Amino acid sequence: MSSLPGLSGVPEPLENFLAMLASGRDNALLRFSLGNEYLKQGNASSAAEHLRRAVEFDPKYSAAWKLLGKALTDAEAWNEALAAYQQGIAVAEGRGDKQAAKEMTVFARRIEKRLGLKSSD
Fold it and tell me: Which of 73, 66, 57, 58 lies closest to 87 in space, CA to CA?
């Protein structure tokens, strides 16, 4: 595989991750990395697809839940994003990851306001 950017039309890190996936390496970290790269490229729907797989592989991967919520928010899939953040908050709290839980709570509240589910902050 060429390391020259743009040769395949796919950015190099993404190209490398896709090659790993094609070679049979499939795990939570690889799917998280793919999701992150797709988000960087502005492709929220592909990002969400890989991040869903990441949390299927490892349901306690709070960073993947957080990024899945962001991808779904970027895709304007508000209800799905809210559900991802809520699951991520539960996971983060269960693992003692207070900062991640706090961040996802802020994002979830923004979505709740957008959906008219809560009037208080």
Answer: 66
